What we know:
The two termini are 29 Å apart. By secondary structure, the protein is α+β, with helices and mostly antiparallel strands. The protein has 10 helices and 8 strands. The chain is elongated. The chain folds into 3 domains: 2-68 and 142-308 and 351-460, Outer membrane efflux proteins (OEP) (Up-down Bundle), CATH 1.20.1600.10; 72-85 and 125-141 and 310-347, Outer membrane efflux proteins (OEP) (Single Sheet), CATH 2.20.200; 90-124, no CATH class. Helix 8 (284-305) packs antiparallel against helix 9. It has a 4-stranded antiparallel sheet, with no helix packed on it. Strands 1-6 form a two-stranded parallel sheet. It has a two-stranded antiparallel ribbon with strand order 3-4.
Amino acid sequence: xxxxxxxxxxxxxxxxxxxxxxxxxxxxxxxxxxxxxxxxxxxxxxxxxxxxxxxxxxxxxxxxxxxxxxxxxxxxxxxxxxxxxxxxxxxxxxxxxxxxxxxxxxxxxxxxxxxxxxxxxxxxxxxxxxxxxxxxxxxxxxxxxxxxxxxxxxxxxxxxxxxxxxxxxxxxxxxxxxxxxxxxxxxxxxxxxxxxxxxxxxxxxxxxxxxxxxxxxxxxxxxxxxxxxxxxxxxxxxxxxxxxxxxxxxxxxxxxxxxxxxxxxxxxxxxxxxxxxxxxxxxxxxxxxxxxxxxxxxxxxxxxxxxxxxxxxxxxxxxxxxxxxxxxxxxxxxxxxxxxxxxxxxxxxxxxxxxxxxxxxxxxxxxxxxxxxxxxxxxxxxxxxxxxxxxxxxxxxxxxxxxxxxxxxxxxxxxxxxxxxxxxxxxxxxxxxxxxxxxxxxxxxxxxxxxxxxxxxxxxxxxxxx
Length: 466
C-alpha cells in the first residue's frame, strides 16, 4: 500500500508545499469530520471558487444581453473651431444677369459678354460651433435578440452545472484523502501494538540468552524482526503525515495548519449494497450535455431569426451655437434647438450566405452533442457495471484479508505462548510475526482499495454530491 500511495501523495503535495512555503504557521487544531472537511473544501478550494466566479460571470452576461434590449440614452457635447472654413464653389450666376442688363440698355456691346462658365468660391458658416444634445434609441423588435436572451439564461444553467461537476470532483478527492488518513492511522496503531509485543519478546529472549536458556541466534532473529518492524512503523508515520498534508491541500487549507479527524470507518456503510438501478440523468456529465444541446438548438433559432426584419426607434434633442467670436459659453447668447424622432426598419436581403453557414454549423454541433449523449449513456452503463463488480470484488477481498489477518494474529499469539512455555521455537515466533505483518499490510491495502471502489461506484451512479 505504501508503494502504491507514496508517488500519488508526493505528486499532489509538491505544488501545495511550493504554494504555502511562506504561509504563516498556526497552532490551532481543527476538528474535522468528513462532512466538515468537504464543506471547508467547497468554500476554499480554488477550483470551486473559480467555478463559482464563472457562474457569477454568466449571470452578468445575461444582464449585459438584457441591457441591449433596454432604452439606450447618450448625452454629447461638441465644440468646433473652423481655423480654415471649408470652401464651396458655386456657378457664376451674377455676371450673366449684370451683363444682360447692360447689353439690353446698349451700354456695352454683346461682344463683351464673358464666354465659358465661370465659378465663384464661397465660404459659409461661422468660425465657432458648439452642439449639445441627448439621443435615445429603443429596440422595438429583433428576433435574434429574443432568442439570444433565452440562450443566455440557459448558459447560466450550464455554468451552474459546471460548478456542480467541480464540487463532485472535490467531494471525491476529499473522501479518498480523508479515509486514506484513517486507514494509515489504524495501520500505525496495529504496528505500534506489534512493535510493543515484539519488543517484549526480544527483551525476554535476550534475558534468556544472558541466563543461558536461549541461543544468540534466537536473539538475532528477533532483532532483525524488531528492526524491520521499526522501519515499517516509521514509514507509516511519514505516510500518515503526507496523507494529512494531501487532505489539507485538497481542502484548500494551509499545509501548516493542524487538523484532527473525528470520523471512523463505518464497515456497515462499506457493506451497503449499491443501487443497481441506473439513471443517466443522475450523472452531471449527462446533464451538461443536455444543456449544451439546448444551447445549440437555440443557436439555430437565433440565426434563423436573423432573416426577420428588425425595428428600432430613435430620437435626438440638440441645441447648436454658431459664433464668429468665441462666446459659446457666454450667457444670453442665442442657441438654435432641433428635435428629431424616427424609426428604422431593417430588412435583411442578402448577406453572402453567412447566416446559412452559421445555421449549418450549429446543426452539426447539435449532431455531435447527440452522438456524445449516446456514447455517454453507454459509458455510464459500463462504468456503473464495472464499478459494481470492482466494489464487490474489493469487499470480498477485504473481508478475506481481514479474516486472514485475524488468523495470523491467532497464530502469532499461539506461537508466543508455545515459545514461552518451551514447547515452541524462536523461528516459529519470527515466522508468525512476519506473516502477521504481511497479513496486516494486505488487509489495509484491501481496505483502501474498498474505499476507492466504493467512492468510484457512488460517483458512477451519480450519488457522490454535496
